[in-house]
Every structure is written in structure tokens, then in C-alpha cells.
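Dear all,

This email documents one entry for the complex benchmark we are building for the journal club exercise. For each entry we list the sequence lines for every component of the assembly. Then comes the predicted three-dimensional structure of the complex as a C-alpha cell string, followed by one or two observations. Please use this as the template for your own entries, and keep the labels exactly as they appear.
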Amino acid sequence: MDFKDSAEQSAFRAEIRDWLSKNATPKSAAGGRKDQSEAYQDAKIWYKKVADAGYACLNWPKQYGGAGLSDIHKVIWSQEVANYAEPDGYFVIGIGNCGPAIMHFATEEQKKTLLPPMASAETVWCQMFSEPSAGSDVAGLRTSAVADGDNWIINGQKIWTSGAQHSDYGVILCRTDPTISKYRGMTMFFIDMNQAGVEVKPIKQMDGGAHFNEVFFNNAVIPDAYRLGEVGGGWGAALLVLMNERLAIAGVQPDGFPEFLKLVKTLHIDGEPISANPAVREHLAEWYYKHAGIKASTNRMLTAVAKGGMPGAEAALGKLVGAVMNQDIANYAIQLMGDAAAICDPAFAEQQAHFQKTVLFSPGIRLAGGTDEVMRNVIAEQVLGLPQEPRADKGLAFNEIPSGNQSR
Amino acid sequence: MNFDFSEDQKNIQEQARSMLAKECSSASVRHIIDGDQYFDAALWQQVVALGWPAITIAEKHGGLGLSYLELCVIATELGRSLAPIPFIASVYLGTELIKAAASPAQQQEWLPALASGDIISTVAISEGKTNHVDCLVSDNQLSGRKSAVLHGMIANTAIVSAKNENGELGLYFAELSDSSVSRAPQDSLDPSLPRAELIFDKTPVIQLAGQTPAASALHTLFDRAAVLLAFEQVGGCEAVIDMAKAYTTDRYAFGRQVASFQAIKHKLADMFVAKELAKSNAYYGAWALAADAPELPLAAATARVSAIDAYYLCSKENIQAHGGMGFTWEFDCHLYYRRAQNLSTLLGGNPYWKGLLVDRLLAA
């Protein structure tokens, strides 16, 4: 048991440290929070810079725009770049989820054409699984793809699509046969987001931002060459994508603790440091051991990955614990600051209004990518092996499943 | 980075697990709880024969000279099986305190008998409901009363905290077979690891004469033991998660497996999450302990707080998952619940360790 790099890993770390010191923006020099389009442009510039230096998608093969290195090199990169104020995780969904789907199912020619610009973020990708009537029950999706000669015609609606408004391409899961069981009647495709019949509408969220979108398909025609995997093989393909997502987001889920610790070290009540307050100390201890436990769990998972394993369903733990903790910490920080905490002006509020922004944004994190409740089911069923609940859709064809008043 | 135990260490754990599955059934734990023995002497002899008390004792002192990592994997299995033996008292506490506070000559004298299992040791620190030390040593003779001493009825020797005539805290080696020592069992929460009262009346003692002052030797002991106990606690958590899973999967209500209800699944998922956090924090503590890293104090406090919370949660919700049967003497749920309580009180409970954790975090 140790945290040492191998000689080769150590040399690699030194190399990227050197590169980052010359090319990345230090945290101390970072400006304030940026608006959404500015942040997007900054991320595009950063990814291109990284790709030009040969550090994009380190664990991808070279011919597809990667560096031909291992998952552990990617981890070392993430550890080092975390010391800088660069948007290195901005396109994680496209690269981490859509990338493996293309890598696994596309033709050689498509891979050579599509993947290198994805790696450098010259083209941006989104993932379209969720629908208005298919959230936690994502296999209940209804967007249809109907074969028409060598083409498919797509109709329906996706929702909660991160970054769709910036995306050039998207991976989409469609219903290709509603007359058989829901898991067998789906197929995966990719689609040009700028083509006819595709319309993106940002969703204004409760925090005022617009990170997610609705995407409408109205007789959007795509060639059969855009199909990823077998007709009817969409669910298996989706599971593969989601399994890769676990690795892509390992250790990047914020839990809010570093910001809380920083705040506690600066606040005073009646001249006394707030860290002397017994109630605050109780929270510090509990949130710290959870924060440390998530970090150590991630390190255990990465060790298993380095030995050739894939992250298991236990990776759900980081999100389950971290997301609600992030929300609770933001709420508690606001309680600590009293009236002043009601002010969202980043020029006035502590840490550029981090806590005010987080208290309003964090409810979404507990829902996105699997709700807290779905994560508990995943752990219960896939890790502990507990039985599924009896289901009303079992053994039925998709178009016979009760759907209440939700339109089909 | 290699944040895992080695294949050799995992093999040791696997062997320990299968030995204890055979030799330390819940019937044998109940034999201690319900009977008039204070520990399972036959199991202790097996553990001694396997060399477990000798793991971290240096070869020059008759030990195996292995790392704390080997002890951590053993601890997990002892916790899982509720082993009713003085391993915590003699190995994590007595032996470790001698290593931390005794002079090289004293270690040479005392450690070989601990390594061979010829003697069982314990530590006697607590005197009552506060952490005051009233025990007094004068002219190398100890007088006073210690309470809640783990395995105090059967230990051959104890390291006792006491003050000298100048009011200075010291640690003293006492032979408990001396006629000046009277011992009495105390009814305790977890009779599988029983406690006793020790009364010393001018008992001849030898002061531990290492370089480290007594107070800081005790801190070192507590940090090391906190990590080892965390592994015992994680083993206990895993045992009760398995129990809850088996019971709710076998039992039917409303025409279906109880484990298929989301209320039960989410309960078990929360138990698993708490256990995993505790396990990962214990791993980090194990690394810091084995590497003697400066991170140990914070890592140990983190592992301890995480493990106390996790074992309490898992052991109480295991009772809940068993319904009424969980509240019976007959079912084993209470054995783990009692053990969780017992382990949380050793070395000071959660509020004490949360305080240490925060002090160390803010100082880091």
C-alpha cells in the first residue's frame, strides 16, 4: 500500500507539471466567475491547447486523437491540472460518454473522422437519453426512429441534455420497436445537431442558469451509417456508456468541503474564530470524514482500474454522498453568515457567492445522472444483489405498458 | 499509487476468515456471554499458534516483524467474527503501549512473552466517569482503583496510568497476579469483551522508561489503536450487512421478499455507503500507520469517527431490518450492536475524537 508513482509515472508527472506551469492559469490569477458563453469559449480554447500539446484524451489510442496512454496517466493529469484554474472537465460528457460509444460501435473511418476533433473540443458532443416521460426509468423512452430505406426518421423529444446548445453532434437513444419488451426495442445512433428537424431549446433552471436543454426531433433524417451497434442493441450500448461515465467522473463530483473549510477558517463571531463553535466543529468533523472517505474510495477504485478492472457500481457512492453534502454545506454556510448571506452579488458574497450559487444549483446535481434514490437502488441491486421490486411493466410489450396520462 | 492490500496480505485475511468461520461461530461467542468464562481460551491458543499477537513485534523481540497492514487485515476478521479473545487488550493496547513507552531494555524483557502469547496484557487508564487520574505511585508502589479495564479479569499484566508524588503522569507495568491486586468483573454492555475493576494496594510496579513522555505515548497508542479498531469495526459492519441481506432476502411479507421493498433496499444501501466510507478511511489510516506518516494523527481520527458512526448505523439498522426477531436474545443482532457500543467507548467516544479530528484538521 503506497501512494508512490512508478518511475515511468513519476517522469510523466514531472513532464506535465512542467507543461502546466508554462501553459495553465494559476488559481491565484483566475478571474471571477464567468457567464455561460464565456466559460464555454474558454473551455474550447483550453482543450485545443491541450490537444495541440498532445495531452488530450491521454487514454485514447493515438489514431483517434488520444495519447495512447493508460487510465492512470489520465488520473495523474487530472490530479495535476486540479492545481490550476482551467476548465479541464468542461466537456466530460461528450468525451467521457459519447467518446467510448463511438470508439466501440462506429466504423474505422467514422472513428478517424469524428474522434480527433472531439478530443480537441473542436467539435462538441452531447448525450441524449432522458425524456419527459423517461427519467429514472430511462428505458421508458419514446423518441422513435423508423427505418426508411437506408435512412432512419427520428421524431420525439429529449430533455435535460447538458450542453446541447453548444453541441455539433449528439448520441441518441431511440425506440425502434414499440411492439416488443422495452429493453429490447431500443437502438443507439449519433446525429448532427445542426441538421434539419433538430431544435434545441435551453431550459431555464431554478437557479436562473440554462445548463440543460430540451431537444425536439421533427422528422429528422439520418443515414443508417449513423447507427451505433445493432438494431435493438441500444440498451446494452447505453449501459456501456454509463459504465464509462463512472470512470470519467471519478473524483470530480464536488462535495463542497474545501470551500467550507476555507470559509470556517475566515469567519469570526464576536472576535472568536467560528471554528471554536461546538456546533460548527461537529459539522466539520462529519463532513470531513465523508469528504476524506469519498477521496479514499476513489483511490481504491483507481487502484482497481490500474490493475485492469472496470469501476463497479460502488462508484455511485461518490455522487450519492457528495451531491447532498454539497447542498447541505451550502445551506449551513449560509446559516453561518446570517443576513449577509442573502446577498448573491459575487463582489460582496464570500468566495464569489459560491455558497449562494451552490444552494440553488445543487438540487439539480442530486437529480442529474441518476437521482439519489436511483443511486441507492443501484447499490442495493448491483452491489448488494438485493431483488428488484415487482414491476408493472414486466413481460409487456412497450406499447402495452401503463402510462397514466403521459402522452406516448 | 497502489491503494490496496497486497495479495499476500489478502491471503492472510482469507486464511483468518476461514479459520474464524470454523472456530469462532456465534455459538462460541454466546458460550462466553452466557457462561462463566471471560474469554475463549481455545481460540486464543489457536490465534497465538498462528502468531497473530507477534505480527508487529520486531524479530529481535521474538516477533514476526511484519507491518501494521497484516494486523489490519486480521483485525477486520476478528471484528467480523466477534472473537471473544483478549486480542484488542493485549495486542492493540498492551503491546502497542509497551512499544510506544517502554525503554529498549524493557521491550527486550517484556515483548517476547507477549509475542509468544505466554502472557496477556491490557491497559488500565480509566478510573471512573471522568478522565482524572488519582492512582498514585510512591516508592515504586501503586495504589488506587481502575475501572472498565478491558479483559482485566484474565490479563497477566497491565500498563497502568498513575501519578507520582510530584503529580506527574507516568505509565507503570504491574503484575496482576500479585496479592496486592484485587479484581472484580463489571457488568458491561458487551460481555464478549468484558471489563473489570482493578484495585491496587501498594502493588510493586516498574515505570515504563522510554524517551517519550507518558501523555504523548498515550496519544501515539490511541492513534495506532484507533486505526486497528476501525478495521475491527468495518469487519463488524460487513457482518451485519450480510445478516440484514440474508434475512430480508429469505423473509416474505405481502407476498414478496422483504428485501425487494425500496424502504429496505435504501436502508441497506445507506449501511453499505457508511461502511465503505469507514473502510476507505481505515485504509488511509492503515497506510499512514504502516508508513509512520505525519498524516497519521488526522487519518486516525478520521478513521475512528467514520468507523464509530458506521458501526452504530449498521448494527442498529440490522436490528430494524430483522423486525421483532432482531430484538430477541436468540438472534445475533444484539451481539454486534453491543460490540459496536463497546468499541466506541474504548479510547474515548465520538465527541472526543471529533474534537481531535477538527483540531488536527485546522492545524494541517
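Observations: Chain A has three domains: 7-90, 125-239, 249-370. Chain A touches chain B through 48 residues (CB under 8 Å).
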